[in-house]
Write a structure and sequence with these properties.
alpha/beta, five-stranded mixed β-sheet
Length: 499
Amino acid sequence: MKKYRICKTCGKVLYAEEDFAEGESGNDYCRDCADEFGNRKRYSQIVKDTKELLTSQMGISEREAEETAKENVSRIPFWIQQEQIFSAKKNIIIIDTGSTTTKALLLHRENEEYSIRSLQFSATTVEKPTEDVNFGVLASIKKIETDTGLKLLEPDSNETNLNFVPDTICLATSSAGGGLQILVIGLTLFDSASSGKRTAFGAGGVILDTFAIDDKRSSLEQMTAMGILHPDIILMAGGVNGGAVSPILRLGEILLLSNPKPKFGEKNKLPLIFAGNEAAQYYIAGLFQQKFELFMVPNIRPTLSQENLAPAREKIHKLFMDNVMEQAPGYAKLKSIVADEIIPTPTGVIQALQLVSESMEKNVMSVDIGGATTDIFSNIMGYYFRTVSANYGMSYSISNVLKDADISQIKKWLPEDMEEDYIRNYIGNKMLYPTFNPDNAYQIAIEQAIAREAIALSKNQHMKMNFNTDNIGFLDKIVNIQRDLSKISETFFFEKALD
């Protein structure tokens, strides 16, 4: 007897591959219930999609369409179950297990409204001697209990057995597998390599290096650099559809000779996603299929004026979920105690931005500045973007901020009586001793000045990478979708064309 799968959200029976999200028969959701990454759509997104469908096909008002959409969605089995679960809970714990720090946030319900009661931190315990993220999770939750006086865990809970009291539920995000590290290869830095970087950043990745025929390195230098890296995934692009094939194969040969090794040595093959000229796929398969775990996706740059990042981004995201996050010690145990799927931290930030943008009906940008990198997230007119400025941070990369911003820019935020040598010495020492915390007003002022300039530099990179409209025809695409020039002119900056 033939077995059929059922969508875990709406209960629809899935017969053929095209019924599944991403067209993959192993997916847990149908194509209507999953987002572009293959994850379950948010409630608000399903309502929005249903509302737009009803408005366009039935010609009813937006208000009536929204009411009908909410009524229909409320009948979907998953959302019925979620409403029942959350209506019975007074406490929601949200855990984020990062590479170095585990954060725990408590939402407590009073009078039918949730509010933030406590936010606590503990070290992420992925290293010896514990090698189990659940130790850090337990420590963070214990701190919340101490801070609030609320009982969240059962008395028999320990690091290997986390049990929550009946009125408490737990959700989680994670980047504790060390983050998604990607090696990007493109034909030229300005075109396909740039599109590859946007794809990698949009999938929540950190780029180890970017290679192209015009990156000013010799073939030997490229081969040596590729060989010492240990990426989780390689993303290779290059060439418009129907364009030249030989330059792409030349880069492929350099990659093959460099023999890069995966971050985790037990893997036999390193995942490689080819998202370039579709005419080159046959030759790429012959070149790589024995050496790498090869995946073919549609070209991210099918023409010079078009980008198609979604398929490659979806594949990166799926590989990240299946491989990288699973590497964090204790991750499987953590999955069993949370009430929903654990999602990558950058994806959680993007979804939060989408919710904020929808509720406020405004464009939103957020910044996450760390010791080595600064992440910029934005949600502009319903489109989300992310960039990671890997050279700007508050400790390991602090000297890069000084170099690129210049001392004059740093000094303009500081008291006039502060000596330049003192500023330079503090910045240099902070790079050498990254865990040092400022202990006087002058040092705090320097760190705040550095943070201002790191954010400014990272924002400029974010804007140039995602909104340089002369490069990829992005503005035209938005115009065709939104038909609202006034909003567009308010949203984007324009670079003066060079004569």
